[in-house]
Design goal:
The chain is an all-beta fold. Helices cover about 0% and strands about 55% of the residues.
């Protein structure tokens, strides 16, 4: 059974940093992981893209996080990371790990990130 387990959320002051991690388990073929990444959902809003990393290494970021967030991946551990710097109150949301594996989408349970002003 494929599962995504996130960690690293929490409460931080504006200007601070957090690092999110997401480990995928139940992976049979690492070459079938087409993309991994992060989305976020603030209260009363839709779930939006934050950043993704494709199998070929191509990165994609939301304009609102460019220059502040960095996505990376450890293929040996089937883990994706999101380093978040210069956090703003508007970054407050539940952050969801995402993976497209064998042309199916998988989601983590979400981790809360709260940025106080």
């Amino acid at each position: 059974q494929v599962q995504l387990v996130e960690s690293g959320g929490g409460l931080v002051q504006a200007g601070g940093s957090l690092r999110l991690s997401c480990a995928a388990s139940g992976i049979i073929s690492v070459f079938s992981i087409n993309a991994m990444g992060w989305y976020r959902q603030a209260p009363g809003k839709q779930r939006d893209l934050v950043a993704t990393i494709a199998r070929d290494g191509i990165l994609n970021y939301a304009d609102s996080v460019k220059g502040r967030f960095t996505i990376s991946r450890d293929n040996a551990k089937n883990t994706v990371y999101l380093q978040m710097n210069s956090l703003k109150p508007e970054d407050t949301a539940v952050y969801y790990c995402y993976m497209n594996y064998m042309v199916r989408d998988y989601w983590g349970q979400g981790t809360q990130v709260t940025v106080s002003s």
